[in-house]
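During the second year of the project, the team shifted from modelling isolated chains to modelling whole assemblies. The rationale, set out in the original proposal, was that interfaces cannot be judged from single-chain predictions alone. As a representative example for this report, we include one of the complexes processed in the last quarter. Its constituent sequences, exactly as entered into the pipeline, are reproduced here:
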Amino acid sequence: MFRTFFLFAFLLSTTSHVSPIDFCIADLKVARTPAGYPCKPPSTVTVDDFVFSNYLPGKNNIFNFSFTLASVDNFPSLNGLGFSMARFDIEEGGVVPMHTHVDADEVIIMLQGNLTAGFISSDSNTAFVKTISEGNIIVLPKGLLHFALNVGKGKASANVIFSSVKPSVQLFDVALFGNNLDSAIVEKTTFLDHAQVQKLKGQFKGSD
Amino acid sequence: MFRTFFLFAFLLSTTSHVSPIDFCIADLKVARTPAGYPCKPPSTVTVDDFVFSNYLPGKNNIFNFSFTLASVDNFPSLNGLGFSMARFDIEEGGVVPMHTHVDADEVIIMLQGNLTAGFISSDSNTAFVKTISEGNIIVLPKGLLHFALNVGKGKASANVIFSSVKPSVQLFDVALFGNNLDSAIVEKTTFLDHAQVQKLKGQFKGSD
Amino acid sequence: MFRTFFLFAFLLSTTSHVSPIDFCIADLKVARTPAGYPCKPPSTVTVDDFVFSNYLPGKNNIFNFSFTLASVDNFPSLNGLGFSMARFDIEEGGVVPMHTHVDADEVIIMLQGNLTAGFISSDSNTAFVKTISEGNIIVLPKGLLHFALNVGKGKASANVIFSSVKPSVQLFDVALFGNNLDSAIVEKTTFLDHAQVQKLKGQFKGSD
Amino acid sequence: MFRTFFLFAFLLSTTSHVSPIDFCIADLKVARTPAGYPCKPPSTVTVDDFVFSNYLPGKNNIFNFSFTLASVDNFPSLNGLGFSMARFDIEEGGVVPMHTHVDADEVIIMLQGNLTAGFISSDSNTAFVKTISEGNIIVLPKGLLHFALNVGKGKASANVIFSSVKPSVQLFDVALFGNNLDSAIVEKTTFLDHAQVQKLKGQFKGSD
Amino acid sequence: MFRTFFLFAFLLSTTSHVSPIDFCIADLKVARTPAGYPCKPPSTVTVDDFVFSNYLPGKNNIFNFSFTLASVDNFPSLNGLGFSMARFDIEEGGVVPMHTHVDADEVIIMLQGNLTAGFISSDSNTAFVKTISEGNIIVLPKGLLHFALNVGKGKASANVIFSSVKPSVQLFDVALFGNNLDSAIVEKTTFLDHAQVQKLKGQFKGSD
Amino acid sequence: MFRTFFLFAFLLSTTSHVSPIDFCIADLKVARTPAGYPCKPPSTVTVDDFVFSNYLPGKNNIFNFSFTLASVDNFPSLNGLGFSMARFDIEEGGVVPMHTHVDADEVIIMLQGNLTAGFISSDSNTAFVKTISEGNIIVLPKGLLHFALNVGKGKASANVIFSSVKPSVQLFDVALFGNNLDSAIVEKTTFLDHAQVQKLKGQFKGSD
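Output from the structure prediction step:
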């Protein structure tokens, strides 16, 4: 049987040394393609490439929430898998402002506390809103405006899954008031009053 | 050669009567799947299934533009093709308000006039804005906030292409102020003032 | 502005009542296609279609673990999203036997306790094994043999994500010893001894 | 251990009775979608659904070849797999006329005899032609004009693989001369002489 | 609120500097993959990458038409979008000869004039032919032989959309008579007469 | 007409020299991406890139079978095509041990002899087993445990097709007993006896 195995291993090796198919750990030093990053050389892969180690509550921002994202950028074994995940913790009264994720569905798996989460459909322009707690999961469909509020007592925590190896985030206020987009254009295209736009441009540090 | 053709036709026919592969005209009376609609029976297909006949400037809305969309809903031969198109005409001074298309890139092919079009990237939060005219095409990437203004003299017209058989449209004002989404939630998640929200709820007929 | 909104809503409605694009909640009463289930009628969709409510630790099986799966079968809003998730709890000493998931990568997000998880690559026939705890995530690539053991003190819990709306599970012992696959075939194709096969056929209730 | 297996089987069964993922045998009585046919009910599936039994040389046509195609139409377990196959036998001197396969790459695996096969690239308008025999495989890229000739001694046979569950076939002569396409249009769009078009319309039974 | 924005921007920036997801402008100096070109560095992207500026009627060829194609080769922001477009102008009496596009559906959006366009299905070998004018769109399904004739008075113009970032074009006459494909092979595989083949080889400059 | 062709060729060439779309021969010296290898430069492509020349029965291994695989690794024109193929020959009494292919359906096209082939479904844990001979094809669905035995008289031969440009192979015995996976883990996760594991570790040269 010794020779059997030897021959068999040889057979296998002739078909496996060039292009491993089992996985494709991202080589982040090379430009990505529309289908993802090129794979790093398989000979350099160890078990640690498959393990992410800092998936813990982060430091709160001024909105009273923290968001620790494991995406292909810091967890390269997600390359080509089509999803990523984040640890989300929000203090009592905290708010996740209205935003969209380009090309990513979002799923919130509640761990503790109470969260009022919602999205607005584009087909029927309906607000779908629900307060969820431990044991609940909510789906927020791709690309639609959505938000979350910790309306309960104490902290709320969740694991959040995105159907993209790296979800883009577009926050309404940051996009409209946090850059050099001309105030006159903002006003004309949003019907917001001049004073309102100026106030938020001030708060979000957009230039005029 | 008569018999040749006869035999050959027979050979072909045995492989083609069950599932035509050339096209899949949507049968809109049946529920769609994530990959599109089921195909209508090939025996009922005529050349008119491949032709859309009302692709003309429509009636202007109050924003001074018209938008005639040929999507899988009214042009079923787009089923499975991955794109749709619209005839877009906008009067001098007209505004296409800030909006997103879920899961569809947009390309504007200018036919006449001048249009200032722009989008805001989510990665770098940069406003990409350009005034375009006949002979110009602009790409507005999938899911990002974008807008257009006819800032020139006279009417502007364009053919617009979407990378979806039916682009969803989410307008900022309609989504936030045109439904029953609670005003308090709108205020908390957008940082807009109470008075501003009430004013726009009134204009866009949202309930309080 | 009243009329504006009215006209605008009319424009939108003419393009949205036939085939909503925002989501496709599975209609489980109709046969699925290779791309997923047909969508249920949008008029019947409520926020509860987006919420899963029983995502809690289940009853332990004899291996001392419980596994509560939210897949397209019991959470139809996952239709077309490309992933599903499970709540996994395993007592001290519990074992998840050697198995594969057809066509699904698996990601384990640790919540508490210690788990030794591992998989065997097919390219290099290497065992990748790691003991993980809270704050760790491990990727187990698609289709490869893998396992987990609670080797720590006390219970271990995790959220598990699969890159499929419904992961198939093929357990080594159940597949080989829990059905009517002929014992002689099992022996010849696995090199296991006759007595070993008979013993496991007895334990897993396979016929001879 | 008896109870173990019982509990385990129960766990598995609760997640598997609605939508089997292992395979999707086409239900040919229902309209296909762009992603393939709906699946037939799993309870009706037997091993015979996975076996095709008439993959043998067929009756020669006037071109001196036979072609036995196993496509999703007569082998429903190919549904969703992305390929199909044909047994191809061609007598000495036989010709497979110039044709294309819409949306399918073709691979010829030679079994016996000699075949001169070729295709014309569209990028560089180059004829790629090679005479192949047993032990040779040739790739004919998707959508390009190609042909084959048995230029050797005796019969040639091959297994042919297509990257589609059902390859469409468009033969140059049948498409141009075997239907009611107006002769004047054929002449103008092909630069063929009137007499040549009339002659081939006669041979391929096209109307004038 | 100043610190709010600062913290928020910081949070965002940590997840966005490595791999922008918003778009993937082709880096044409690097080899493409089956899914498209690698992305150029986001720091070098400006609004001009999203704008194509020479989309105007070109110089007529001898067939009396011009065709200005915006594909990924000269408009790199189309990379990964799945479509491209062309400005098409054809003089009275002009002919677009019989041809196919490998792997690309074509949609003609008429701007002015009258065009008789048609394709031949492979399933039923039917000629689908229609004369279209301004306000009409026609779909020509992927891979099938098709043609167009300006049969009206005056020039005809159109925007043409392809479901590929770069449509290959295979013209019947150029493919068969414009290269070194052996005349004997052409005759045997097309059933065209020797004199006809020689004549067209002469016109299209093919070698014998 | 001379000038015609010249102008026409010029038109074509301006759209084709950068990124050929007809094919994408793998450049195996560059790292692959999740969608396949980058394409080698088109100017270096010849007809020999499309031809595989050593597709012949190989040398038998100790299990009495040979397996000659044409995958993207040694036949780079398969890049992006989604399938690969193997010549399979097995002597009387030969056994293909229990194994899986990650992410590849397998189709066996019998050429001669008799083969008992089977797979075990994961949904219903059913063994689907059939003895097949010349003129039969069997589908073995993606990722499931399967096996084959030459139970007939004399040699059996087949062409085997995989729905992957390079099928990974995971053999039960090699994966469990042919590497450094800890024996205690093997025993706990497979329920095999200690003595059985030690015996097979010896035969398959796994370390303890």
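Chain F is about 20% helix and 30% strand. Chains F and B do not touch (no CB pair under 8 Å).
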